[in-house]
Design goal:
By secondary structure, the protein is of the alpha/beta class. The N and C termini lie far apart (about 45 Å). It is built from eleven helices and twelve strands. Strand 4 and strand 5 form a beta hairpin.
């Protein structure tokens, strides 16, 4: 694999990704033509409601979709100018944990309960380097120290750690081999606000130190504000708005993005109730024709419900999938 150079336009480029599952005789259209780019050392946030397809995008990039239920998985994922969707599985195994790594949403299911935390980190180090057992264990202890866990606790087991500490272990494991790309799938969902802030601060610091590119998957716009450079708003398996963080936060163009911001509580708001987006996300086995958001959109007309809607540029680098944007 080539080394990334400063002249390379994009470190990661996802092009026309499609993921479909088969469930109870129906086809679940989880990801429907998703495309986005990520530069070296930068962070993109994938934002949207539960079921929008964010985790399926991550698993498709990692190539860990379940074989028994995946009906279709297509598109290109260019990592450091190589299409990792087309390489053999044996080569992909060498990349996972080394060139690209993932922090999973639930640290308890990501950790082996019968192995010490240091053993689990050291195992990844030995798989992707020439380290012997002693060197790998030293690296594991160094990584624990890096995420704020004393090396004295290296031989303890996952059940002996709190939720926040387990999440730190998972982060240490993901970063142990200095990956070029880190995918963080809602890494702070199960944590209280104080620990969440500490974990986000730590992830940002480690990313800066290692110059790691990151995909942050979340439905929390506060997390996006803290960590991301660019944002892709995901709805019904599609990117419906894409741009720099400042564009999305200061000039949201899609009615769904506007609705997400209106649903946020605020210290300076006098309203006594939140303003949620009316309705529910569409059934992925039976997506509506035209714009997928049209059944919930207050601005939708017959054209929105009839015609497929493509991405249009609002300002340079800021695109939106809406016939009426900007609002």
């Amino acid at each position: 694999m080539k080394n990334i150079t400063e002249e390379s336009k994009h470190f990661l480029s996802v092009q026309d990704m499609v993921v479909q599952y088969r469930s109870e005789g129906k086809v679940v259209m989880a990801v429907n033509g998703v495309s986005f780019d990520l530069d070296k050392g930068k962070t993109i946030g994938l934002v949207g409601e539960t079921g929008a397809g964010k985790t399926s995008i991550a698993k498709a990039i990692m190539r860990i979709l379940p074989d028994h239920s995946t009906y279709q998985n297509s598109g290109k994922v260019m990592l450091d100018q190589e299409d990792i969707m087309s390489i053999p599985e044996q080569e992909m195994r060498k990349l996972r944990g080394h060139k690209l790594s993932m922090i999973f949403q639930d640290p308890m299911t990501a950790l082996n309960p019968v192995k010490s935390v240091a053993e689990q980190i050291a195992e990844a180090v030995r798989l992707h380097s020439d380290s012997n057992k002693v060197q790998a264990m030293k690296r594991a202890k160094d990584m624990l120290e890096l995420v704020g866990i004393s090396a004295d606790r290296a031989n303890e087991y996952p059940h002996q750690f709190s939720g926040g500490m387990k999440q730190r272990v998972v982060i240490a494991m993901a970063l142990a081999c200095d990956p070029m790309l880190l995918i963080a799938d809602e890494p702070t969902t199960a944590l209280d606000v104080t620990i969440q802030a500490q974990v986000l601060e730590m992830i940002n610091a480690l990313k800066e130190k290692l110059n790691t590119s990151m995909i942050m998957i979340t439905h929390d716009l506060g997390v996006v504000a803290e960590t991301c450079d660019t944002v892709a708003v995901i709805y019904a398996g599609q990117v419906i708005e894409y741009g720099a963080k400042e564009d999305i936060f200061d000039r949201p163009a899609h009615p769904y993005t506007v609705g997400l911001f209106k649903a946020l509580p605020g210290m300076n708001k006098s309203s006594r109730r939140l303003s949620p987006i009316v309705g529910m996300p569409p059934d992925p086995t039976d997506l509506p024709s035209g714009c997928s958001f049209s059944p919930r959109c207050p601005y939708a007309d017959d054209a929105c419900k009839r015609d497929a809607v493509g991405m249009q540029e609002i300002t340079p680098g800021h695109t939106c999938r809406c016939l009426k944007a900007p609002l």
